[in-house]
Design goal:
about 475 residues, alpha/beta, TIM Barrel, 3-stranded mixed β-sheet, 17 helices, 15 strands, binds beta-D-galactopyranose
Length: about 475
């Protein structure tokens, strides 16, 4: 009742306030999830253990001591998930494949028939509902067996990853025409290998993340080329990846802060985008120079950032059919030069990252509501990489426990307006994805931060889902393909 009231009130406010902005017909709308965050069924059938199973089963890793053993129980309830997608009226659903559900040991010598059957059934139901599947091949849940061999720091991972991708193309590529090799390599490498925050929690600051990134870039390129050479001609789909980026705004108008913010963009988005999307390829020059200089000053015989050969640079460059981006918030950047004997990603970057305390917040410490940053980020991508087709694969807001989630509605309203501003600026954005379809396991934050359009009751073993006010807002936005001007 409260929700219906909120929606009617919003409609009334909009009706009084006025100008309607239409989304172009070329823009499609979806919602996203990820396997470990929703599936549960962590040891169902012959599924193998992955790094999030291992990490979350250890003490003091997850804020509320929880794990994804059951999560939203989507392993058993994907039919309900598809019903929700139909209720929302989305054009597409972005989900990911659990590597160790399909390949229990990580290697492709043994393929789980139950694992394949699960995704087959989901994909078939989506297609029957006229909802396009967008499949992320890797959304953070590496098989533990492969982590035991070094995970993303093992150069052979590019072969293992591409074998997994090939199993996915073979099994699902007749129906799946939109592939993402990776979700957010920056987070995978920085928080999983440089820091302890996320699985596998290696914590080799200033070293681990760069080795991880190096192998991950090669893995992406190898899977892209496999698809391009072998599967595209028969399956006729497209493939790219999705990178995370906040907008990084200079804290003051000084030239030093402008330069610092540029540099920070290169260490954030550029670390993974430059090699793939720029005309020259390779890592951004500023990263190569700074990490090499600091490494030598710290007594290392070579840069902590590994080097690509000219052949590798050429092999990685251009491995995209679109530019995928996940965006949530904005940071302020100030120049901060320090010297340190200890290697450190943030000292390599040499900036201070912070947020304006007056910006409205969310349940996540890092997520402030700054809609104008979205427009600036999309324009930065347009300017930097020759106006590529951009697909926004995540955007969303967290709160604690709230069905009548007016703050989430206001977040989406602001960010969708900013998206329209960017489209009017000439950014070629063709997809927008809300994170997330439903509340789910928010990694190291457990279930303490909720991002869903649907509420999930994690205390009930049946994990019932209910639409929040924001689900109705999103549904009506998709129905009318328009919003009010802010
Ligand atoms: C992204 C990630 C998602 C989700 C979201 C909200 O970085 O891809 O899995 O957790 O953040 O924090």
């Amino acid at each position: 009742m409260a929700i219906t009231k909120t929606i009617s009130l919003l409609c009334l406010i909009f009706a009084v306030r006025g100008e309607v902005r239409r989304f172009p017909d070329t823009l499609s709308f979806g919602v996203a999830t990820a396997s470990y965050q929703i599936e549960g069924g962590w040891n169902a059938s012959d599924k193998g253990e992955n790094i999030w199973d291992r990490f979350s089963h250890q003490p003091n890793t997850i804020k509320d001591g929880s794990n994804g053993d059951v999560a939203c129980d989507s392993y058993n309830q994907h039919k309900r998930d598809v019903e929700m997608l139909k209720e929302l009226g989305v054009d597409f659903y972005r989900f990911s494949i659990s590597w160790s559900r399909i390949l229990p040991d990580g290697f492709s010598n043994k393929i789980s028939q139950d694992g394949i059957a699960y995704y087959d059934s989901l994909i078939n139901d989506l297609i029957a509902a006229n909802i396009t599947p967008f499949v992320t091949i890797y959304h953070w849940d590496l098989p533990q067996r492969l982590q035991d061999l070094g995970g993303w720091t093992n150069p052979l991972i590019a072969d293992y990853y591409t074998d997994f991708a090939e199993v996915a193309f073979e099994a699902f590529g007749d129906r799946v025409k939109n592939w993402l090799t990776f979700n957010e390599p920056w987070v995978v490498c920085l928080q999983g290998y440089g820091q302890h925050a996320k699985a596998p929690g290696v914590g080799m600051n200033g070293i681990g993340e760069y080795i991880c990134g190096h192998n991950l870039l090669k893995s992406h390129a190898k899977a892209y080329h496999l698809y391009d050479d072998v599967y595209r001609p028969i399956q006729m789909g497209r493939i790219g990846w999705t990178l995370s980026s906040n907008w990084l705004e200079p804290a003051t108008q000084s030239a030093a802060d402008a330069e610092a913010a540029d540099r920070a963009m290169q260490f954030n988005l550029g670390w993974f985008s430059h090699a793939v999307f720029s005309r020259e390829g390779d890592y951004p020059q500023v990263m190569r120079d700074r990490i090499a200089n600091k490494s030598l000053a710290q007594g290392y015989p070579r840069s902590r950032l590994p080097e690509f050969t000219p052949e590798e640079i050429a092999y990685i460059k251009g491995t995209f059919d679109f530019f995928g981006v996940n965006h949530y918030s904005t940071n302020l950047i100030k120049m901060l030069e320090t010297t340190s004997i200890a290697p450190d990603f943030f000292l390599d970057m040499g900036v201070l990252v912070f947020q304006n305390p007056t910006w409205p917040g969310s349940a996540s410490s890092w997520l402030k509501v700054v809609p104008w940053g979205f427009r600036k980020l999309l324009n930065w991508i347009k300017e930097s990489y020759n106006n590529p087709e951009i697909l926004v694969f995540e955007n969303g807001f967290s709160d604690r426990d709230n069905m009548d989630d007016v703050d989430r509605i206001s977040y989406y309203h602001g960010y969708l307006n900013s998206l329209l501003d960017a489209i009017e600026d000439g950014c070629n954005v063709t997809a927008y994805t809300a994170w997330s379809l439903m509340d789910n396991f928010e990694w190291d934050e457990g279930y303490t931060e909720r991002f869903g359009l649907y509420y999930v009751d994690f205390n009930d073993p049946r994990r019932p889902r209910k639409p929040k006010a924001s689900a109705l807002y999103y549904k009506s936005t998709l129905e009318t393909r328009s919003i009010e001007r802010d």
